[in-house]
Amino acid sequence: MSKQLNIEAQQKFGEAVNTGNFELFKEVVAPNALDNDPAPGQLLGPEGYMHFFTMMRTAFPDFKVEVEHLVADENNVAFAYTATGTHQGNFNGIPATGKSIKIRGMQISRFENGKMVERWGSSDELGILKQLGVQVG
Name one GO biological process term (predicted). Predict the structure, then answer.
């Protein structure tokens, strides 16, 4: 598969996240795709991402991810991003605060035949909690 095809698949993944059109995950995520940094209880494959981002967009209806830097080879796409949103619904038991969040993160996705088969990632989860006013530590 070509590097460009993998980049396009990753961009479609981002489109799903940013628009809430989660059916797109079925086009770009393999059924048994492994997430090496899953959310608690996250399922494999497109359904896992559909469930996770439904939760995120319920808590942050204007949730957006903006890619800041992207590199790719024949099998992998890696990128740094900024995620933003306004807390307007329940997030991990935290009722809506109306506060805005802005966090950074990184992701590496491995592709086969134009579909994500494995993912590694890290987001500033502690930063979300602090920006929502949750006492941590």
Answer: polyketide metabolic process
| Position 79 pLDDT exceeds 80 | yes
Q: Is residue 24 part of a domain?
A: yes
Q: How many domains does the chain have?
A: 1
Going 58 to 59 to 62 to 68, the CA torsion angle's sign is: negative
pLDDT in tens, 47-61: 999 999 999 999 999
**Is residue 136, in this structure, part of any structural domain at all?**
no
The two counts, helices (H) then strands (E), for the chain are 4, 5
Q: Give all strands (DSSP E) within the chain, no chain letters.
A: 29-35, 64-72, 76-86, 100-112, 115-123
CA 4 – CA 59 distance, rounded (Å)? 33
Its pTM surpasses 0.85: yes
What CATH code is carried by the domain that includes residue 85?
3.10.450.50
Q: Would 32 be classed as within a structural domain?
A: yes
* DSSP type of residue 50: H
> What number is the average pLDDT over the span 113-137?
93
Q: Is residue 106 part of a domain?
A: yes
Range of the domain at 59: 3-131
Sign of CA dihedral 78, 75, 114, 58: negative
